[in-house]
């Protein structure tokens, strides 16, 4: 009996496979850091139940965020403001080859869900929900920025 070789394809860069602990270890950060970035609206990991899953593109974007924060000295509110006016690859020095496929560039906050992948109608509805959520988040961020200015 001759066995066929399994058709093993490389992991797609937008496939969320890394749980928060693994992602944190790969990035050399504490998992709390990733939760803070999510709370601040800078990243949107895929949720499966109550678990956060990160893709390779998410890790690349988080690496860009870390460089902006630590190397460039830009604050999280500053990054939020920059992202209102420019895509991430315009403000971060990300590799050019990921610009077309990186979730952070294509649509940095589309909530991805494994059970919706490939269903155009479900993806359209998810985008509509995301737009509404982003508008609410933008309003919340504007209020937060105004409060930050009052404190200073």
Précis, in short:
With about 150 residues, the chain is mostly helical. The protein has helices at about 20-25, 30-40, 55-70, 75-85, 90, 105, 120-150; strands at about 20, 45-50, 50-55.
Kindly describe this structure.
The structure is a single chain. This protein has a three-stranded antiparallel sheet with strand order 1-3-2. It has a single domain, classed as Orthogonal Bundle (Multidrug-efflux Transporter Regulator, Chain: A, Domain 2). The longest helix is centred in the C-terminal third of the chain and has 32 residues, at 120-151. Residues 105-115 have low confidence and may be disordered. It has helices at residues 20-27, 31-39, 56-70, 76-85, 88-91, 103-107, 120-151, and strands at residues 18-19, 46-48, 51-54. The protein has 152 residues and is mostly helical. It is built from seven helices and three strands, in the order E-H-H-E-E-H-H-H-H-H. A hairpin with a 2-residue loop joins strand 2 and strand 3 (51-54).
Number of H- or I-type helical stretches: 7
> How many angstroms does the end-to-end distance come to?
75 Å
Q: Which stretches are low in confidence, meaning pLDDT under 50 for 5 or more residues running?
A: 105-115
Strand order of the largest sheet: 1-3-2
CATH architecture: Orthogonal Bundle
Q: Give a quick account of the main beta sheet: strands, pairing sense, barrel closure.
A: 3 strands, antiparallel
Mean pLDDT: 76
Structural class: mainly alpha
Strand content range: 5-15%
Total domain units: 1
CATH fold name: Multidrug-efflux Transporter Regulator, Chain: A, Domain 2
Whole-angstrom Rg: 17 Å
Q: Specify the CATH class.
A: Mainly Alpha
Share of helix, binned: 40-55%
β-strand number? 3
- The topology string of helices and strands comes to EHHEEHHHHH
How would you sum up the global shape? globular
